[in-house]
Specification:
about 25% strand; alpha+beta; four-stranded antiparallel β-sheet
Length: about 90
């Protein structure tokens, strides 16, 4: 499984609506409310061969009537290997 994060900017007063919709869909591993440019930070896990963009569209983790354009953060394990930390 491969983790990735999506930062979501919600329309005014809609953070709980978006977070609850993600929680009810049971597609997110973790959902956090954040301060700053984005309102939510959502962690997902997908199989290593899954197209993350297609997953976001298919599972509703993209823009909606309650949120703006999301920002996806894809993570890599490159640092662990360089530091000698086991996988």
């Amino acid at each position: 499984m491969v983790p990735f994060f999506v930062q979501i900017k919600c329309k005014l007063g809609q953070s709980y609506t978006v977070a609850n919709a993600l929680a009810e869909a049971e597609i997110a591993s973790e959902i956090y409310s954040t301060a700053g440019h984005y309102d939510l930070l959502v962690k997902f896990y997908v199989d290593k061969d899954t197209d993350i963009g297609a997953f976001r569209q298919r599972e509703g983790a993209g823009p909606s009537r309650h949120s703006g354009h999301p920002h996806t953060i894809i993570t890599f394990k490159g640092v662990r290997r360089r530091l000698g930390i086991p996988n």
